[in-house]
Amino acid sequence: MFGAFFVPRLFDLVKNSSAQPKKQISFYTLSLNSMDKVNSFINTRLESRKKLDSLRTLRKDRSLIDFCSNDYLGFASSTELKSLIKNEIAKNPDYLTGSTGSRLISGNDEFTEKLEMEIAFFHRAEAGLIFNSGYDANLGLFSSIAHRGDTIITDELIHASIIDGTRLSAANRFVFKHNDLQSLEDKLRLAKGNIFVAIESVYSMDGDEAPLEAIVTLAEKYNAAIIVDEAHATGIFGLRGRGLVHEYNLQERIFARIITFGKALGTCGAIVLGSESLRSYLINFARSFIYTTAAPFYAHLSVKMAYRLLEFSDHQRLIHHKIEFFKQAAEEISMQFLNSRSAIQSLVIGGNQQTKIASKFLQKKGFDVRPILHPTVPEGKERLRICLHTFNTDKDLVNLAATLKELR
Ligand SMILES: Cc1ncc(COP(=O)(O)O)c(C=O)c1O
């Protein structure tokens, strides 16, 4: 609209006015030309995505059976959670709809700080700092913690938010082969300065787990600090969903953990867990914490209530029942699945086009299974990422497994 209508009119105005000095005409001509250039760049990029069958588009349809969301425990639609939140809201009728500023200016309060302490205690960490999202948490942590001369080593399948965080840091960056201890040790030998190793306890695209104990032991040999993203392990593993670090009792040996609230906890936001001094450091240096408006009371209250539901309900047992049930139903094709005991079960198809065809076939049958395409995953590893939930009925799981078998 702006390019096609508004700007040419402005341009005409300038062109037709004899009072305007020539300089301004050339300014508008320039801005028109440069906009054409940018638009042509944008269209070329989109065309190339279309050619590669990897154009991303947004979808609104929620009528299919959900096998794609990260709402593993069904908290996002839980009436129990809604009524817990509603009751608390009723006790705080004067709550503010917005936090009114960043945490360092006007957006902080007793409630948020207490919540941080409660969550840290739940996960058996010394302290925690809440960010508005997992993306913000990783961006803030990784961009601020390592400096020129330091080294960050990440698993090759690490989440984009960690990659982006490390890109904002001046530290050396190394990548090791997925879950490969030898490859990690090769990088550790080359590392200089303060050394950080970043992994996910459950990988978001494969659903498999990091060999946590072995990685921690290896990292300790090289004095490296471990950072574990527990986005997909929270609520699923560890006592009452405390995560895999807790399941293996490694919390004392881990430098920092990232827990996200937008997945199994069904709300939004994230917390970085670590020492009191790490918390204070992030308040001072993590730009994605400092320069943003804090989440409002309602968001933090929802997180608090989601933790309450996690602690005092049976959802974790139920999700493991569903995972086991699905695996048994799909046993005949188990070889095609990546190894996973998490709620993410990935079936590698290979090729963007083939994977899209497979997911469309499933969607036609009523299952919302999404294709994960290159460049999100390496070429040849394009897959159907099947997310299991407590609310998927046993019948849905049997039917999905039967439909997947038809793909062979
Ligand atoms: C491993 C991992 N870390 C971080 C994030 C980002 O979390 P959020 O969605 O809260 O920004 C995600 C979400 O996709 C993730 O999968």
Question: Can you summarize the main beta sheet?
Answer: 7 strands, mixed
Tell me the structural class: alpha/beta
Note the overall shape: globular
The number of distinct helices, counting runs of at least 4 residues, comes to: 15
Protein described:
The longest helix is centred in the N-terminal third of the chain and has 30 residues, at 22-51. Helix 6 (160-167) links the parallel strand 3 (151-155) and strand 4 (172-176). By secondary structure, the protein is α/β, with parallel strands linked by helices. It is 46% helix and 13% strand. It is built from 15 helices and 12 strands. It has helices spanning 2-16, 22-51, 79-91, 110-122, 134-145, 160-167, 181-190, 212-221, 244-247, 276-285, 287-290, 297-312, 315-329, 352-364, 394-406, and strands spanning 65-66, 127-131, 151-155, 172-176, 195-200, 225-229, 256-260, 270-274, 344-348, 367-368, 370-372, 383-387. It has 2 domains: 65-76 and 314-406, Aspartate Aminotransferase, domain 1 (Alpha-Beta Complex); 95-312, Aspartate Aminotransferase, domain 2. A 7-stranded mixed sheet has the order 2-8-7-6-5-3-4, sandwiched between helices. Residues 1-19 have low confidence and may be disordered. The protein binds pyridoxal-5'-phosphate.
